[in-house]
Design a protein that fits this description.
By secondary structure, the protein is an alpha/beta fold. Helix content is 32%, strand content 32%.
């Protein structure tokens, strides 16, 4: 799993690809002032079982079918891309928020400290893991880091599919992290400032991820597989209790909901339940607030879910490259 810095000294990706359990999607987005402009977007459905996302087992079950789908969506987004940003399911990685009272000055020492911390939370040897991290909030009691760990061979499965389709995936990102980057990229267009606590709920048929941002920085992340016995209402309630008791929560300034529901009407029921429990209107995660559509690309009911992670990862890369 590559760090973003690998992109800063090399050409930016030509497109983004998401490999999900039921589909492969790709998009090309050009810089357009403070926003992006969607140049092309394509989706190919996958047969059930072709991709089986999991933390501790193989993910790409039908490599030929997934490779062909990647090749097909890239052909449809226009000029043949050579480099892509790759988005994979949340279930393929383990996210942790860790805090250290003292941070080593040497990068190698910090790497070792992070790996030692996360080894207790992953169901495989840390020697077999790709571990990446980024600084989080700094407070009087220490410095937080956002850590993602995934099995190296699982990441290589996703990268290998792209390589077989003729493109290089230099940046690999979890789907909900890409959506969080999209949310942060909409500051200028969406209502409300970045300051305060935001609750983001990202749904997929296979899982639901819940994140809390404080002043634009991640302080909480939880992923719930859809075969879990807990309902979304239960998870939100537990998250709200943890937020108040352990994170000194004073109430959410914004609540955002997006993604794809597993059954018809589930998203609307989830929105109503969130509003009733939290006492605040729930906003839809809308990528078109950060990405303008060209005349030949019309909006469709599934466009927000398809575009959100693809736009998020590309906007992140573009933003970081400009700031480098």
């Amino acid at each position: 799993m590559s760090l973003l810095t690998s992109w800063l000294a090399s050409p930016l990706p030509d497109a983004a690809v998401e490999i999900a359990p039921d589909r492969v999607a790709a998009a090309a987005i050009a810089a357009h002032g403070t926003r992006g402009r969607l140049q092309a977007c394509a989706v190919e459905a996958l047969a059930a079982g072709a991709v089986a996302p999991a933390l501790a087992s193989h993910n790409i079950v039908d490599r030929a079918a997934v490779t062909e789908s990647v090749r097909a969506v890239l052909a449809r987004v226009g000029s043949r891309p050579a480099r892509v940003a790759l988005v994979i399911p949340d279930l393929a990685g383990k996210v942790s928020v860790v805090r250290f009272g003292r941070v080593p000055q040497r990068r190698d020492d910090l790497d070792q400290l992070v790996r030692w911390q996360v080894r207790k939370s992953i169901p495989f040897p840390v020697e077999e893991a790709c571990v990446t991290y980024t600084p989080g909030r700094r407070g009087p009691d220490g410095h937080e880091f956002i850590v993602v760990a995934a099995r190296r061979d699982v990441v290589q499965e996703y990268e290998g599919v792209c390589a077989a389709a003729g493109v290089h995936a230099g940046l690999v990102e979890l789907a909900t992290f890409s959506v969080l980057n999209l949310v942060l990229a909409t500051d200028g267009a969406a209502p409300g400032p970045r300051a305060g606590d935001w609750l983001i709920v990202h749904m997929r048929p296979e899982y639901t991820s819940i994140a809390i941002l404080r002043d634009g920085e991640l302080i909480f992340f939880r992923n719930r597989p859809e075969d879990d016995e807990e309902t979304l209402a239960d998870v939100v309630h537990q998250t709200a209790m943890y937020y108040q008791d352990r994170l000194a929560g004073q109430g959410f300034a914004r609540v955002l909901l997006g993604g794809r529901e597993r059954t018809t009407g589930f998203a609307d029921e989830a929105r109503k339940d969130l509003e009733a429990r939290l006492g605040i209107p729930v906003e839809a995660i809308d990528p078109t607030t950060a990405v303008a559509l060209t005349d030949r690309i019309g909006e469709s009911p599934d466009l927000p879910d398809v575009l959100a992670p693809l736009a998020g990862v590309l906007l992140r890369v573009q933003r970081e490259a400009v700031g480098a």
